[in-house]
Write a structure and sequence with these properties.
Blueprint: H1 2-39, H2 43-56, H3 60-72, H4 76-82, H5 93-105, H6 109-122, H7 127-139, H8 143-154, H9 161-173, H10 177-189, H11 195-207, H12 211-224, H13 230-242, H14 246-260, H15 264-280, H16 284-297, H17 304-314, H18 318-332, H19 340-355
Helix pairs in contact: 1-2, 2-3, 3-4, 3-5, 4-5, 5-6, 6-7, 7-8, 7-9, 8-9, 9-10, 10-11, 11-12, 11-13, 12-13, 13-14, 15-16, 16-17, 17-18, 18-19
Length: 357
């Protein structure tokens, strides 16, 4: 009997070892297949294999693989939720950076800052993250904090364009024109001659009273934008006015005004929607004002004159109401195949004109 029990226990141990071995083999195979898919960017298939492995061993390393896969798919919510409850010091650099950007995309600014700060605590010379976190601080109005972060990095490395770029923008926001100018000139020396940098350099020169240098910088910015941006044009116009070159300044201001004209279709939709809201609340005076503005942006609108007529009528302005109804009827008569709702409105407009001469 004793020998039988020993034999039975031995069999159970072997079975358990074999089962564990099978689990390990299955886990390793899933990881291997997932990694293979990730190397060729078959992310969805990789995630399928990783989730199979997760059912066996939900390790932090595996969860990082899954989170990074979700990040590549821009599934930021799942990327963040996959790493919930895992200590920051157990995450690798790429995962922490992905979590920073994922939280930023989701509008979780406080959590994004926490991940960014954790990255910099462990990897203080990650210039890209320093610049990204400083920009987050700057957008949140924490200008001094952004400046301190960049200065701390800059004391150890003056060559990182990403950090130099945000430093220049910080000085610009703080209206420290001399420091901002020097920073933008440094960026240009480093080869970062972007439209933004040329425009901001011109603004610095403009505020410092160096009109000739401002004019040259704005010329470059205007050329880089192919004259499709209003900002350098009206800044250039102001500089040219200061130099009493009024003919040239007027050209700039005219171009800027043309570019600043709103999209008529969008403006019509906004005013028409606003008017309908007032109309639904029987606030006919406000509705009338909005309908009239909508009509200015789209004089061809078929139904707007009808509602203008109703509003005038409700406000007791019979002559204006009649003119609006007549305008509406003239427009509607041009429709070859009017819809049922248009026919209803035509009938109502005629009845109103007949009942209230």
């Amino acid at each position: 009997m004793k020998r039988f029990l020993v034999f039975l226990l031995a069999l159970m141990a072997i079975a358990h070892t074999a089962s564990a071995g099978n689990e390990n083999d299955r886990y390793a195979a899933s990881i291997r297949l997932g990694d293979s898919c990730m190397r060729v960017y078959q992310v969805t298939r990789a995630l399928t294999y990783y989730h199979k492995a997760l059912a066996d061993y939900p390790t932090a390393a595996l969860r990082m693989k899954i989170a990074n896969g979700y990040y590549l798919q821009h599934n930021y919510a799942k990327c963040v939720s996959m790493m919930e409850g895992i200590a920051l010091d157990s995450l690798d650099h790429d995962t922490m950076c992905h979590l920073f950007r994922a939280c930023k995309e989701l509008g979780l600014r406080k959590r994004a800052a926490e991940f960014g700060e954790a990255v910099i605590d462990r990897w203080p010379m990650d210039g890209e993250m320093v610049a990204a976190l400083a920009r987050e601080y700057l957008s949140a109005g924490m200008n001094s904090k952004a400046e301190m972060l960049c200065n701390r990095y800059w004391m150890r490395d003056e060559t990182c364009i990403a950090v130099n770029d945000i430093m220049a923008d910080i000085y610009m926001v703080q209206r420290q024109w001399q420091l901002a100018k020097d920073s933008y000139l440094l960026l240009l020396q480093q080869g970062d001659s972007t439209y933004k940098n040329m425009l901001n350099l011109g603004v610095c020169y403009e505020w410092m009273g160096e009109a000739d240098k401002a004019r040259k910088a704005f010329d470059v910015a205007i050329a880089m934008s192919d004259s499709t941006a209003a900002i350098p044009l009206y800044h250039q116009g102001a500089v040219l006015n200061g130099q009493k070159d009024y003919d040239a300044s007027m050209v700039c201001f005219r171009k800027a005004l043309t570019l600043l004209q709103p999209d008529s279709a969008v403006m019509f939709s906004c005013y028409r929607g606003l008017a309908e809201g007032y109309y639904a609340h029987t606030d006919y005076r406000q509705a009338l004002s909005a309908f009239l503005q909508a009509q200015d942006y789209d004089p061809t609108s078929l139904t707007t004159p009808y509602y203008i007529g109703v509003c005038y009528e409700a406000l007791g302005e019979k002559a204006n109401a009649k003119a609006a109804y007549q305008h509406f009827l003239n427009q509607a008569a041009k429709e070859e195949d009017p819809r049922a709702d248009l026919k209803r409105m035509v009938g109502d407009a005629r009845k109103r004109m007949h009942d209230r001469p």
